[in-house]
């Protein structure tokens, strides 16, 4: 004995602990052991199962047979973290708190209350949105629960019982039958003809045969006597021993890997985070520096409050509060457009990520292929003919050829698949593929054709025979004796062994050695294409010998009809071959080519066989060059003799990964990954979920923005690790969908190309939105700097800045998301996230130093024009707000009146007396020129009114110059005359921002909230010349760039 029960439990527990490291591959030795060793290791009995006491002990060690979700923080904690942390959020919270504090000190200034509330609302909304984005993967572990069956039949204490699947423990002996979902990882010990569907776990498109005998496979996943939790037993009935339960199963390790894999921050999130950090730090720095200057130089009564208000203004002016809202809405609009192209976006930021993608790691089955076996080639008359996998009637074959007709008849009769009334076909994958091909040859009425050939005997396929046989009556007149035909299909080597003749152009010839070798070459060629090859043969059983014959037998040895068993017995007649393949989806080769022309490397990562993977990769264009194996085959030399630098394509198996990564040092691993990933064409086959994760990580470490496609459970860790995970909508498991950022509703790889194009468009358009948004920052900052440096009355209030950032600028900024592409963006390389940033110094230079400066000049000019109309000459403005009493004078009678004079060289003076008499040398004081309230001496309320008109004029001037700013941001290279004005949303947004601006200044009640005043029409006009200047300047700049490509102007101003 290898050990008693206690020792077995200890050994199992040690293995359990050893596998806690998620970096370790799934390991078990159970597939290598004999039945006796298996029973000793798990302390079980194949005939009686476990005893009740053993079950109790094992459950104490291993727990219930279910997956354990990782501990998670409560939702309110995640929400609070999203709302109250982060530099941008903290900055806005500080601004909000300071505003509310200032309102507490000076309740009469209600604008501070409005600012505090608005800033708090902005950070609450953006934080809440971030919370919903970050919580998208919480449901991954829950999706795995669907793989656990409710109940299972097993042997316990010698009794056949039915228990809940969660009560299973290692060592239990379970009874399985066709259609059962595997309740745990098991080793088959009794039964025959097992087949399991591993497609959701490994990506293998065909059911896999399973046996009971010990196996010497290198890794458990390759063992043909194991089946894993969550897979489906599609054929067979028998007995199996549970070897792993719960978290220790292959599925459990995938679940934990997916659940613990950190979600990668998207490129757009990194860009925005970096930009917000920089712009916020700049705001804080400017606010602090000029706040100190203001505090030191101010002689205001409430110096501290005054300084705080100033700092708030600087922060609000610098920070684009509407930026996150603009980005969110723009991404949402793009996601909506993508939904019409069969792409469902779960994570909005993934929209742009797809456009930045430089590497696509694509699954094969169901993504690049249809996940539907189809006849790809037929072979008859010693020749190979290609079939049309989309249209069975089309192909290179001749439907009138007698050899082809007999081959099709054999495929129709020697077939257990059935066609239902609604046209659906039931049966295993291979037989269904054959019926799909032959049914149209019989007018899509194979049932009627089969009825003409009643089956009288059959031998079903089994793993020992590797063939299927049936005998049918041949249609005859009623008075004629019955003839029969024997039809057989199976493994080509078996079929050839049973044949001594073959059909050539409908004529029966002896199957000599030359013909036999020709057929073998045909089998080899089809196999090299990665296709599953089936051989077909027949034998006419003619009357009178077989007229009333009772056919019997279930093997070649015991059947009572000819089977070529000796020289006295005729052999069968070879008809031909049919090869099956899971064909590429329509449009996939074109989509792959388009990705490659866009500079995106497409890598196939599959759990399927290397030959099959390579064949499909060649068909869809992922492999375009010869591999080392191909070159060696062509030269007739060993693969080791081929120089690595000669080949541009490579197929890497999971075993290769084990040899080159497992236990190797970092330098060796890096050398291996560099050698593989730097090849132009790359395919990974027979990979495990852990290896797929390592492949994604290796691509990311080499600077790639990686998109991963997948539909199975095995894909979920990589989907989550990728920069963008893309799951299949039709065939994808819920696990894959939960882990993904995006879902292809039509399961078509070609839809990814649409997503890439939309992603690139939205990146360009986000740059335009940001350029538009940032341009208004300078005209918002300059007023505060002039207020401190020159001590002029504040040209623009903080609340008006929020009116621009969260009001008039939002719709135009969002409208740029609707802008069409400027050029064929699918012909340019993916952007480099290290250099091709969303916000570059050239963009900041464009927005701040070029357009922003012109906008600031427009605002200052409008401000001065309006104050001049109230009697304040521009040269008299400096110094008027030195004591902050220009508009805030109610608490100090010394500043109740202000006297200004026609001689602009004489400074204005404050006084508590409104009826002064002046010396003769003083010129007569001036009065208002447009008759609005006041006169001289100007009282506090009149001065406040004049400044509010000037503030309002400055606000309107920003709207006017933003008209031009919006138009020039439509394009970065083309002229607006070439781009056109087809963006109706933008056209309406121009009208909207103007109407909104008018509403804010002309609506009673609203004026009191925002301190605006109803401007005369003449005061809308000063900003128009600057609007025209901006438009003309940028059109000339872009024209020069188009004419002088890559010149100095493009290098310094193209953003």
TrEMBL record:
Q: Which UniProt keywords apply?
A: ATP-binding, Cell membrane, Ion transport, Membrane, Metal-binding, Nucleotide-binding, Phosphoprotein, Potassium, Potassium transport, Translocase, Transmembrane, Transmembrane helix, Transport
Q: How does it sit in the membrane?
A: Multi-pass membrane protein
Q: Spell out the molecular function terms from Gene Ontology.
A: ATP binding; ATP hydrolysis activity; metal ion binding; P-type sodium:potassium-exchanging transporter activity
Against Pfam families, the record matches this protein to: Cation_ATPase (PF13246), Cation_ATPase_C (PF00689), Cation_ATPase_N (PF00690), E1-E2_ATPase (PF00122)
Q: Which SMART domains match?
A: Cation_ATPase_N (SM00831)
- Spans traversing the lipid bilayer: 83-105, 111-132, 275-293, 305-331, 839-864, 985-1005, 1017-1036
Asked if the keyword Transferase belongs to this entry, the reply reads no
Which family does the UniProt entry place this protein in? Belongs to the cation transport ATPase (P-type) (TC 3.A.3) family. Type IIC subfamily.
What name does UniProt use for this protein? Sodium/potassium-transporting ATPase subunit alpha
State the organism of origin.
Hirondellea gigas
